[in-house]
Amino acid sequence: MSYSSNQVIPPHGGYKKLMLYQMAEIVYDLTVKFCKSYMSYSSNKTYTRTYDQMIQAARSGKQNIAEGSMASGISKKTELKLIGVARASLEELLVDYQDFLRTKDLKLWGKDDPQAQAVRRLAYRSNKSYKTYTTYLKSAESASNCLICLIHQTNYLLDKQLAALENEFLEKGGFTEALYRARRARV
Length: 187
What we know:
Elements: H1 19-38, H2 45-71, H3 76-103, H4 114-122, H5 140-172, H6 175-186
């Protein structure tokens, strides 16, 4: 679809091509696998609640990116809000993984840990998916740390997206301004 500057509703969607969406999808897929492997969905209500919340936080990160992208043609304000919700959801998930490590007396990899660096380097592979990271799912400690690295990378991309959206909104305005410009151009 071509787009002219006189067009009121710009192209929108295309979120599946965004690196931040792809990373959020990997975080979601790995979180589902992590919870099934290392968290008991049982009679322990605290664990069951955390299991559900972790999956929902990962899902919310991914889904809000998609929804924000689709809303972007009509409402930059909604897009900004939803990308912010995605960021907040992944931050919640990050804290859950950190809590998991701490309460299990497992090691949290530092930023310069060779294993953390190896996980971070995988982000540069093309056509990556959750399968790219499955070697890190062999233990709860390794899986948690891998996901912490991935969430940090995804949050970095979300922060960059939020900054870009904010700048675009300040420069061009939103849908209401576009309607006004289109109406004035016809007069």
